[in-house]
Protein backbone atom coordinates (compact mmCIF):
# COMPACT_ATOMS: atom_id res chain seq x y z
CA UNK A 1 0.00 0.00 0.00
CA UNK A 2 1.57 3.34 -1.03
CA UNK A 3 1.92 6.03 1.61
CA UNK A 4 -1.03 8.40 1.80
CA UNK A 5 0.65 11.22 -0.09
CA UNK A 6 1.37 8.98 -3.09
CA UNK A 7 -1.98 7.23 -3.29
CA UNK A 8 -3.58 9.68 -5.74
CA UNK A 9 -0.73 9.37 -8.26
CA UNK A 10 -0.44 5.59 -7.88
CA UNK A 11 -4.16 4.90 -8.13
CA UNK A 12 -4.70 7.37 -10.96
CA UNK A 13 -1.76 5.74 -12.78
CA UNK A 14 -3.80 2.53 -12.82
CA UNK A 15 -6.31 4.46 -14.97
CA UNK A 16 -3.64 5.72 -17.37
CA UNK A 17 -5.09 3.96 -20.42
CA UNK A 18 -8.53 5.44 -19.72
CA UNK A 19 -7.11 8.94 -19.26
CA UNK A 20 -5.04 8.63 -22.44
CA UNK A 21 -8.11 7.59 -24.45
CA UNK A 22 -10.10 10.46 -22.94
CA UNK A 23 -7.37 13.01 -23.70
CA UNK A 24 -7.04 11.82 -27.27
CA UNK A 25 -10.80 11.99 -27.79
CA UNK A 26 -10.76 15.64 -26.66
CA UNK A 27 -7.73 16.28 -28.88
CA UNK A 28 -9.57 14.90 -31.91
CA UNK A 29 -12.52 17.26 -31.34
CA UNK A 30 -11.02 20.71 -30.71
CA UNK A 31 -13.30 23.70 -30.23
CA UNK A 32 -12.45 27.40 -30.25
CA UNK A 33 -13.13 30.02 -27.59
CA UNK A 34 -16.71 30.03 -26.29
CA UNK A 35 -17.58 27.20 -28.70
CA UNK A 36 -16.55 24.34 -26.39
CA UNK A 37 -20.01 22.73 -26.37
CA UNK A 38 -18.93 19.14 -27.01
CA UNK A 39 -16.09 19.42 -24.52
CA UNK A 40 -18.32 20.99 -21.88
CA UNK A 41 -20.98 18.31 -22.47
CA UNK A 42 -18.35 15.61 -22.04
CA UNK A 43 -16.98 17.18 -18.86
CA UNK A 44 -20.44 17.68 -17.35
CA UNK A 45 -21.50 14.13 -18.25
CA UNK A 46 -18.43 12.56 -16.65
CA UNK A 47 -18.70 14.66 -13.49
CA UNK A 48 -22.38 13.84 -13.13
CA UNK A 49 -21.63 10.15 -13.65
CA UNK A 50 -19.16 10.30 -10.75
CA UNK A 51 -21.81 11.85 -8.51
CA UNK A 52 -20.47 15.41 -8.73
CA UNK A 53 -23.11 18.16 -9.14
CA UNK A 54 -22.34 20.61 -11.93
CA UNK A 55 -23.15 24.22 -12.69
CA UNK A 56 -23.05 25.21 -16.34
CA UNK A 57 -23.07 28.40 -18.35
CA UNK A 58 -20.60 30.63 -16.52
CA UNK A 59 -18.64 32.42 -19.20
CA UNK A 60 -20.89 30.87 -21.87
CA UNK A 61 -19.54 27.30 -21.93
CA UNK A 62 -17.84 27.06 -18.54
CA UNK A 63 -18.48 24.14 -16.22
CA UNK A 64 -18.02 24.09 -12.45
CA UNK A 65 -18.13 20.81 -10.55
CA UNK A 66 -19.05 21.05 -6.86
CA UNK A 67 -17.42 18.19 -4.95
CA UNK A 68 -18.35 18.22 -1.26
CA UNK A 69 -17.28 15.94 1.58
CA UNK A 70 -17.96 16.41 5.27
CA UNK A 71 -19.42 19.51 6.82
CA UNK A 72 -16.64 22.07 6.67
CA UNK A 73 -17.52 25.39 4.99
CA UNK A 74 -13.98 25.67 3.59
CA UNK A 75 -13.36 25.45 -0.16
CA UNK A 76 -10.54 25.36 -2.69
CA UNK A 77 -10.61 25.69 -6.49
CA UNK A 78 -8.82 23.73 -9.22
CA UNK A 79 -8.89 25.13 -12.75
CA UNK A 80 -8.32 23.74 -16.25
CA UNK A 81 -8.86 25.35 -19.68
CA UNK A 82 -10.82 23.66 -22.47
CA UNK A 83 -10.40 25.66 -25.69
CA UNK A 84 -8.27 25.00 -28.78
CA UNK A 85 -6.48 27.23 -31.28
CA UNK A 86 -7.30 28.25 -34.89
CA UNK A 87 -4.39 26.18 -36.25
CA UNK A 88 -4.44 23.54 -39.00
CA UNK A 89 -2.92 20.40 -37.46
CA UNK A 90 -0.17 18.68 -39.44
CA UNK A 91 -0.09 15.51 -37.33
CA UNK A 92 -1.38 12.38 -39.03
CA UNK A 93 -1.83 10.01 -36.12
CA UNK A 94 -5.21 8.46 -35.28
CA UNK A 95 -6.29 11.14 -32.77
CA UNK A 96 -5.44 14.16 -34.96
CA UNK A 97 -8.02 16.93 -35.20
CA UNK A 98 -11.23 16.09 -37.00
CA UNK A 99 -12.21 19.77 -37.11
CA UNK A 100 -10.40 21.54 -39.98
CA UNK A 101 -8.48 24.64 -38.95
CA UNK A 102 -8.79 23.86 -35.24
CA UNK A 103 -6.25 22.14 -33.03
CA UNK A 104 -5.36 21.49 -29.42
CA UNK A 105 -1.89 22.94 -29.92
CA UNK A 106 -1.38 24.16 -26.35
CA UNK A 107 -2.30 21.09 -24.32
CA UNK A 108 -5.67 22.19 -22.98
CA UNK A 109 -6.94 18.71 -23.84
CA UNK A 110 -4.37 17.41 -21.35
CA UNK A 111 -5.22 20.03 -18.74
CA UNK A 112 -8.91 19.14 -18.93
CA UNK A 113 -8.10 15.44 -18.68
CA UNK A 114 -5.83 15.91 -15.66
CA UNK A 115 -8.54 17.79 -13.79
CA UNK A 116 -11.07 15.12 -14.72
CA UNK A 117 -8.68 12.48 -13.40
CA UNK A 118 -8.36 14.37 -10.14
CA UNK A 119 -12.14 14.76 -9.92
CA UNK A 120 -12.73 11.04 -10.46
CA UNK A 121 -10.21 10.14 -7.76
CA UNK A 122 -11.56 12.65 -5.22
CA UNK A 123 -15.16 11.58 -5.86
CA UNK A 124 -14.23 7.94 -5.21
CA UNK A 125 -11.81 8.39 -2.29
CA UNK A 126 -12.64 11.68 -0.60
CA UNK A 127 -9.88 12.33 1.88
CA UNK A 128 -10.92 15.91 2.58
CA UNK A 129 -13.45 17.89 4.60
CA UNK A 130 -14.95 20.77 2.66
CA UNK A 131 -15.59 21.61 -1.00
CA UNK A 132 -13.43 21.30 -4.07
CA UNK A 133 -14.61 23.46 -6.95
CA UNK A 134 -13.58 21.97 -10.30
CA UNK A 135 -13.38 24.90 -12.74
CA UNK A 136 -13.40 23.97 -16.44
CA UNK A 137 -12.84 27.28 -18.18
CA UNK A 138 -13.50 28.26 -21.81
CA UNK A 139 -11.62 30.71 -23.99
CA UNK A 140 -8.16 30.99 -22.46
CA UNK A 141 -6.50 31.51 -25.84
CA UNK A 142 -8.85 34.21 -27.06
CA UNK A 143 -11.59 36.01 -25.20
CA UNK A 144 -10.48 35.92 -21.58
CA UNK A 145 -12.74 33.11 -20.42
CA UNK A 146 -11.47 33.40 -16.85
CA UNK A 147 -12.53 37.04 -16.75
CA UNK A 148 -15.91 36.17 -18.25
CA UNK A 149 -16.54 33.42 -15.69
CA UNK A 150 -15.68 35.88 -12.94
CA UNK A 151 -17.98 38.54 -14.42
CA UNK A 152 -20.75 35.95 -14.38
CA UNK A 153 -20.20 35.36 -10.66
CA UNK A 154 -17.66 32.54 -10.37
CA UNK A 155 -16.16 33.60 -7.05
CA UNK A 156 -19.41 35.12 -5.75
CA UNK A 157 -21.34 31.88 -6.29
CA UNK A 158 -18.45 29.60 -5.39
CA UNK A 159 -16.30 31.39 -2.79
CA UNK A 160 -12.95 29.70 -2.21
CA UNK A 161 -9.87 30.32 -0.12
CA UNK A 162 -7.41 29.63 -2.94
CA UNK A 163 -7.30 28.55 -6.57
CA UNK A 164 -4.67 26.47 -8.35
CA UNK A 165 -3.91 25.77 -12.01
CA UNK A 166 -1.42 23.67 -13.98
CA UNK A 167 0.00 24.08 -17.50
CA UNK A 168 2.21 21.72 -19.46
CA UNK A 169 5.63 23.01 -20.46
CA UNK A 170 7.64 21.50 -23.33
CA UNK A 171 11.35 21.55 -22.65
CA UNK A 172 10.93 20.75 -18.95
CA UNK A 173 11.73 17.06 -18.32
CA UNK A 174 8.90 14.60 -17.92
CA UNK A 175 8.32 13.87 -14.26
CA UNK A 176 9.15 17.36 -13.06
CA UNK A 177 7.01 20.30 -11.99
CA UNK A 178 8.20 23.91 -11.97
CA UNK A 179 6.81 26.74 -9.87
CA UNK A 180 7.97 29.96 -8.26
CA UNK A 181 6.39 32.89 -6.40
CA UNK A 182 5.87 36.26 -8.02
CA UNK A 183 5.56 36.94 -11.76
CA UNK A 184 5.74 33.78 -13.89
CA UNK A 185 3.99 35.01 -17.05
CA UNK A 186 3.73 38.47 -18.55
CA UNK A 187 0.76 40.66 -19.34
CA UNK A 188 -0.61 40.42 -22.88
CA UNK A 189 -1.30 43.73 -24.62
CA UNK A 190 -1.81 44.78 -28.23
CA UNK A 191 -1.36 48.04 -30.08
CA UNK A 192 -2.50 49.39 -33.42
CA UNK A 193 -1.52 52.66 -34.99
CA UNK A 194 -2.58 54.20 -38.26
CA UNK A 195 -0.41 56.83 -39.92
CA UNK A 196 -2.44 59.21 -42.05
CA UNK A 197 -0.26 60.84 -44.71
CA UNK A 198 -1.03 62.11 -48.20
CA UNK A 199 -0.88 59.78 -51.16
CA UNK A 200 0.83 60.61 -54.40
CA UNK A 201 2.93 59.46 -57.33
CA UNK A 202 6.06 57.48 -56.44
CA UNK A 203 8.03 59.68 -58.88
CA UNK A 204 6.97 62.89 -57.07
CA UNK A 205 7.35 62.16 -53.34
CA UNK A 206 7.81 65.87 -52.54
CA UNK A 207 4.12 66.40 -53.30
CA UNK A 208 3.03 63.66 -50.91
CA UNK A 209 3.36 62.87 -47.20
CA UNK A 210 4.67 59.33 -47.28
CA UNK A 211 3.47 57.34 -44.22
CA UNK A 212 6.00 54.55 -44.77
CA UNK A 213 9.14 56.48 -43.67
CA UNK A 214 7.11 57.70 -40.71
CA UNK A 215 6.40 54.07 -39.81
CA UNK A 216 10.10 53.24 -40.12
CA UNK A 217 11.04 56.03 -37.72
CA UNK A 218 8.38 54.95 -35.22
CA UNK A 219 9.49 51.32 -35.40
CA UNK A 220 13.07 52.24 -34.56
CA UNK A 221 12.10 54.68 -31.83
CA UNK A 222 9.83 52.18 -30.08
CA UNK A 223 12.83 50.01 -29.26
CA UNK A 224 14.49 52.89 -27.44
CA UNK A 225 11.68 52.64 -24.89
CA UNK A 226 13.04 49.23 -23.93
CA UNK A 227 16.72 50.26 -24.03
CA UNK A 228 16.58 53.85 -22.78
CA UNK A 229 13.29 54.58 -20.94
CA UNK A 230 12.55 51.38 -19.03
CA UNK A 231 14.72 50.61 -15.98
CA UNK A 232 17.20 47.90 -17.04
CA UNK A 233 16.10 45.41 -14.36
CA UNK A 234 12.42 45.63 -15.31
CA UNK A 235 11.28 43.35 -18.12
CA UNK A 236 9.25 44.34 -21.18
CA UNK A 237 9.04 43.42 -24.84
CA UNK A 238 7.67 45.39 -27.81
CA UNK A 239 7.14 43.27 -30.93
CA UNK A 240 5.89 44.82 -34.17
CA UNK A 241 4.27 41.94 -36.00
CA UNK A 242 2.15 43.54 -38.73
CA UNK A 243 2.84 46.38 -41.19
CA UNK A 244 0.43 47.14 -43.98
CA UNK A 245 0.71 49.89 -46.57
CA UNK A 246 0.09 50.37 -50.26
CA UNK A 247 -1.21 48.22 -53.10
CA UNK A 248 0.90 49.03 -56.18
CA UNK A 249 4.60 49.89 -56.70
CA UNK A 250 4.20 53.36 -58.19
CA UNK A 251 1.77 54.88 -55.69
CA UNK A 252 2.63 56.40 -52.33
CA UNK A 253 -0.24 55.30 -50.06
CA UNK A 254 -2.36 57.58 -47.94
CA UNK A 255 -2.04 55.42 -44.85
CA UNK A 256 0.15 52.84 -43.18
CA UNK A 257 -1.05 50.55 -40.38
CA UNK A 258 1.18 48.96 -37.77
CA UNK A 259 0.20 46.38 -35.14
CA UNK A 260 2.02 44.39 -32.53
CA UNK A 261 2.29 43.05 -29.00
CA UNK A 262 3.62 44.42 -25.72
CA UNK A 263 4.56 42.18 -22.79
CA UNK A 264 5.55 43.24 -19.27
CA UNK A 265 5.39 42.01 -15.68
CA UNK A 266 4.94 45.17 -13.62
CA UNK A 267 1.91 47.40 -14.11
CA UNK A 268 4.07 50.52 -13.72
CA UNK A 269 6.39 49.33 -16.47
CA UNK A 270 3.43 48.75 -18.75
CA UNK A 271 2.09 52.24 -17.99
CA UNK A 272 5.46 53.69 -18.97
CA UNK A 273 5.66 51.71 -22.19
CA UNK A 274 2.15 52.65 -23.28
CA UNK A 275 2.70 56.35 -22.54
CA UNK A 276 6.00 56.52 -24.38
CA UNK A 277 4.66 54.60 -27.37
CA UNK A 278 1.80 57.04 -27.70
CA UNK A 279 4.09 60.07 -27.40
CA UNK A 280 6.59 58.72 -29.93
CA UNK A 281 3.90 57.75 -32.44
CA UNK A 282 1.97 61.00 -32.30
CA UNK A 283 4.96 63.36 -32.18
CA UNK A 284 6.90 61.53 -34.88
CA UNK A 285 3.90 61.77 -37.13
CA UNK A 286 3.63 65.49 -36.46
CA UNK A 287 7.31 66.05 -37.35
CA UNK A 288 6.64 64.62 -40.82
CA UNK A 289 3.31 66.39 -41.28
CA UNK A 290 1.30 63.21 -40.76
CA UNK A 291 -1.39 62.36 -38.21
CA UNK A 292 -1.16 59.18 -36.14
CA UNK A 293 -4.08 57.42 -34.44
CA UNK A 294 -2.73 55.20 -31.64
CA UNK A 295 -4.72 52.47 -29.87
CA UNK A 296 -3.50 50.31 -26.98
CA UNK A 297 -5.49 47.37 -25.62
CA UNK A 298 -4.68 45.57 -22.38
CA UNK A 299 -5.80 41.96 -22.69
CA UNK A 300 -4.46 39.83 -19.84
CA UNK A 301 -2.57 41.05 -16.76
CA UNK A 302 0.64 39.40 -15.62
CA UNK A 303 0.32 36.03 -13.90
CA UNK A 304 1.69 36.58 -10.39
CA UNK A 305 1.83 33.64 -8.01
CA UNK A 306 1.13 34.27 -4.34
CA UNK A 307 4.00 33.37 -2.05
CA UNK A 308 2.06 31.35 0.54
CA UNK A 309 0.14 29.27 -1.97
CA UNK A 310 3.26 28.64 -4.03
CA UNK A 311 5.15 27.46 -0.95
CA UNK A 312 2.24 25.20 -0.08
CA UNK A 313 2.10 23.69 -3.59
CA UNK A 314 5.85 23.08 -3.37
CA UNK A 315 5.34 21.19 -0.10
CA UNK A 316 2.74 18.97 -1.74
CA UNK A 317 5.02 18.29 -4.70
CA UNK A 318 7.84 17.29 -2.36
CA UNK A 319 5.54 14.59 -0.97
CA UNK A 320 5.15 13.20 -4.49
CA UNK A 321 8.54 13.79 -6.12
CA UNK A 322 12.24 13.96 -5.32
CA UNK A 323 13.78 17.39 -4.63
CA UNK A 324 15.41 17.33 -8.07
CA UNK A 325 11.99 16.98 -9.70
CA UNK A 326 10.56 20.12 -8.05
CA UNK A 327 12.24 22.99 -9.85
CA UNK A 328 12.04 26.77 -10.14
CA UNK A 329 9.97 28.21 -12.96
CA UNK A 330 11.88 30.87 -14.85
CA UNK A 331 9.46 33.67 -15.79
CA UNK A 332 8.60 33.83 -19.48
CA UNK A 333 6.90 36.49 -21.59
CA UNK A 334 3.91 34.40 -22.68
CA UNK A 335 0.56 35.23 -21.08
CA UNK A 336 -2.30 33.34 -19.46
CA UNK A 337 -5.74 34.46 -18.36
CA UNK A 338 -5.52 32.52 -15.08
CA UNK A 339 -3.95 35.85 -14.10
CA UNK A 340 -7.45 37.29 -13.66
CA UNK A 341 -8.26 34.62 -11.08
CA UNK A 342 -5.01 35.26 -9.22
CA UNK A 343 -5.89 38.96 -9.01
CA UNK A 344 -9.13 38.04 -7.22
CA UNK A 345 -8.14 34.98 -5.16
CA UNK A 346 -4.83 33.82 -3.76
CA UNK A 347 -3.29 30.90 -5.62
CA UNK A 348 -0.52 29.42 -7.71
CA UNK A 349 0.02 28.46 -11.33
CA UNK A 350 2.51 25.62 -11.82
CA UNK A 351 4.08 24.03 -14.90
CA UNK A 352 4.34 20.29 -15.46
CA UNK A 353 7.14 19.04 -17.69
CA UNK A 354 5.98 17.84 -21.11
CA UNK A 355 9.44 16.58 -22.08
CA UNK A 356 11.49 17.22 -25.19
CA UNK A 357 9.39 15.20 -27.60
CA UNK A 358 10.36 11.69 -26.58
CA UNK A 359 6.67 10.78 -26.50
CA UNK A 360 6.01 11.77 -30.12
CA UNK A 361 4.32 9.12 -32.20
CA UNK A 362 4.78 8.33 -35.89
CA UNK A 363 2.65 10.69 -37.92
CA UNK A 364 3.72 13.98 -36.37
CA UNK A 365 4.37 16.82 -38.74
CA UNK A 366 7.65 18.63 -39.07
CA UNK A 367 8.91 20.93 -36.38
CA UNK A 368 9.67 20.80 -32.67
CA UNK A 369 7.14 19.80 -30.05
CA UNK A 370 6.37 23.34 -28.90
CA UNK A 371 3.01 24.78 -27.91
CA UNK A 372 1.15 26.68 -30.65
CA UNK A 373 2.93 24.46 -33.17
CA UNK A 374 0.91 22.48 -35.79
CA UNK A 375 2.80 19.29 -34.88
CA UNK A 376 2.40 19.64 -31.10
CA UNK A 377 0.89 16.83 -29.02
CA UNK A 378 0.44 16.55 -25.26
CA UNK A 379 2.53 13.92 -23.48
CA UNK A 380 0.06 11.36 -22.10
CA UNK A 381 2.71 9.94 -19.76
CA UNK A 382 2.34 12.96 -17.48
CA UNK A 383 -1.44 12.63 -16.99
CA UNK A 384 -1.26 10.59 -13.74
CA UNK A 385 1.26 12.94 -12.13
CA UNK A 386 -0.74 16.04 -13.05
CA UNK A 387 -4.05 14.56 -11.92
CA UNK A 388 -2.52 13.14 -8.75
CA UNK A 389 -0.89 16.44 -7.87
CA UNK A 390 -4.17 18.32 -8.26
CA UNK A 391 -6.04 15.76 -6.17
CA UNK A 392 -3.44 15.78 -3.40
CA UNK A 393 -3.29 19.58 -3.50
CA UNK A 394 -7.02 19.79 -2.75
CA UNK A 395 -6.83 17.18 0.03
CA UNK A 396 -3.89 18.85 1.70
CA UNK A 397 -5.27 22.37 1.39
CA UNK A 398 -8.51 21.45 3.13
CA UNK A 399 -6.57 19.57 5.82
CA UNK A 400 -4.42 22.59 6.73
CA UNK A 401 -5.56 24.90 9.53
CA UNK A 402 -7.95 27.61 8.39
CA UNK A 403 -6.62 31.16 8.45
UniProtKB/TrEMBL annotation:
Q: Mind listing the GO biological process terms from this record?
A: diaminopimelate biosynthetic process
State the superkingdom. Bacteria
Report domain Peptidase M20 dimerisation positions.
Answer: 190-284
The record ties this protein, via InterPro entries, to: Amidohydrolase (IPR017439), Bact_exopeptidase_dim_dom (IPR036264), Peptidase_M20 (IPR002933), Peptidase_M20_dimer (IPR011650)
So where does this one cross the membrane?
Answer: none
Q: Which cofactor does it need?
A: Mn(2+)
Gene3D superfamilies annotated for this entry?
A: 3.30.70.360, Zn peptidases
Query: Which named protein is this?
Result: Amidohydrolase
Q: Which organism is it from?
A: Candidatus Dactylopiibacterium carminicum
Amino acid sequence: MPRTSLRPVVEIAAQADYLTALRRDIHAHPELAFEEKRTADLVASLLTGWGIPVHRGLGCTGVVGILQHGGSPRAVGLRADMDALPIAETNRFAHASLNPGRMHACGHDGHTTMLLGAAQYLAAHGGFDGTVYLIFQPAEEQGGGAREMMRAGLFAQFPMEAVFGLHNMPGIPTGTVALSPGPVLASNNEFRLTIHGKGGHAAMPHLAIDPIPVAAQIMQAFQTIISRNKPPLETAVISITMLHAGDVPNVIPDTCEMQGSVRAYAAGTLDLVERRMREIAEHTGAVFGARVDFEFRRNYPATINHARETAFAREVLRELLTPAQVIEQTPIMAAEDFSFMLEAVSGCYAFIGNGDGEHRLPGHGDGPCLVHNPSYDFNDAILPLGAGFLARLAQRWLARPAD
